[in-house]
Amino acid sequence: MVEYRIDRRSGVATYLQIVQQTKQALRMGLLEPGDRLPTAREVVESTAINPNTVLKAYRELEREGLVEARRGLGTFVRATLGTGPADSPLRGELTDWARRARAAGLDREDVSALFTSVLKEHFEGDDA
């Protein structure tokens, strides 16, 4: 089951963080069709956010056809994204790179900014 982490300083709306983290879990193969998402109550207890925010995120995911709400049972994954890059050899290379970046004194925000700039450079104009 996915565990959401909310960054209140990111400038990204909380519901969008839930949507993005769910999509990332789908791309990484951490969530698969049939898996149940945490209930709104479980998310609220672990993140201290408003239940309506969780429901808004889940409605957005449902609108995109990625999940479906089943009354009385919960919200379940309907579709996956990507082809499972969790098993990609590139993941190991990226893990090694992240370790080197940390050893070089970069913090999480530095690494994120560097990675984002490289993504923009190489994927400019893509919808990815």
Automatic annotation (TrEMBL):
Q: Which InterPro entries match?
A: Tscrpt_reg_HTH_GntR (IPR000524), WH-like_DNA-bd_sf (IPR036388), WH_DNA-bd_sf (IPR036390)
What keywords are assigned to this protein? Answer: DNA-binding, Transcription, Transcription regulation
Which top-level group of life is the source organism from?
Answer: Bacteria
SUPFAM superfamilies, alphabetically?
Answer: Winged helix' DNA-binding domain (SSF46785)
The residue ranges of the HTH gntR-type domain are 12-80
Output the Gene Ontology terms for molecular function.
DNA binding; DNA-binding transcription factor activity
The protein's matches in PANTHER family, at most eight in alphabetical order, are given as: GNTR-FAMILY TRANSCRIPTIONAL REGULATOR, HTH-TYPE TRANSCRIPTIONAL REPRESSOR YTRA
The molecule here is called: GntR family transcriptional regulator
Which organism encodes this protein? Streptomyces gardneri
